[in-house]
């Protein structure tokens, strides 16, 4: 089975990555300015390698899951370090994120119930002409 072209390439232009991931080149430059990715430079041109692409995948996944750039940076800083530390940090951050989302879900369920009750009362009042 053949790999997608992007997985078999070794070098990427910023426009290639932006197009592949559906983000702006400005977003990629922002992640670079935060030290999350470090493309090589040839003059003014950024040259991204597979490692940068892999890190970009992790950054975007982390953002989609609601992690802060600081959390993502902490995780990526361990990317080439001790794998046990990386897994421990990941488990800790994911546990905290799950707890926060579960709290938000409880709050949303309460809010939805309250809004349904308010709507019900309003419709009853409208029906009785009060």
For the biggest β-sheet, the strand order reads: 1-3-2
Q: Based on helices, strands and strand pairing, what is the structural class?
A: mainly alpha
Q: State the end-to-end distance.
A: 70 Å
C-alpha geometry: elongated
CATH architecture designation of the largest domain: Orthogonal Bundle
Helix content: over 70%
Description:
By secondary structure, this protein is mainly α. It folds into 2 domains: 1-66, Multidrug-efflux Transporter Regulator, Chain: A, Domain 2; 81-130. The protein is built from 6 helices and 3 strands; from the N terminus they run H-E-H-H-E-E-H-H-H. It has helices at 5-8, 14-21, 25-33, 50-64, 69-77, 83-128, and strands at 11-12, 40-42, 45-49. A 3-stranded antiparallel beta sheet has the order 1-3-2. The longest helix has 46 residues, at 83-128. The model has no long low-confidence stretch (mean pLDDT 90).
Write the layout of secondary structure elements.
Blueprint: H1 5-8, E1 11-12, H2 14-21, H3 25-33, E2 40-42, E3 45-49, H4 50-64, H5 69-77, H6 83-128
Antiparallel strand pairs: 1-3, 2-3
Supply database-style keywords:
mainly alpha, single chain, Multidrug-efflux Transporter Regulator, Chain: A, Domain 2, three-stranded antiparallel sheet, 3 strands, 130 residues
């Amino acid at each position: 089975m053949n790999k997608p072209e992007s997985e078999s390439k070794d070098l990427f232009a910023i426009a290639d990555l932006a197009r592949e991931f559906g983000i702006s080149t400005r977003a990629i430059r922002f992640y670079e300015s935060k030290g999350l990715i470090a493309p090589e430079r040839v003059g003014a041109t950024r040259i991204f390698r597979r490692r940068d692409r892999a890190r970009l995948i992790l950054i975007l996944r982390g953002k989609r899951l609601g992690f802060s750039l600081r959390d993502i940076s902490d995780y990526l800083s361990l990317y080439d370090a001790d794998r046990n530390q990386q897994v421990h940090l990941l488990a800790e951050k994911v546990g905290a994120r799950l707890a926060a989302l579960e709290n938000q879900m409880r709050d949303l369920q309460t809010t939805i119930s309250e809004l349904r009750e308010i709507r019900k009362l309003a419709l009853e009042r409208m029906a009785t002409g009060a």
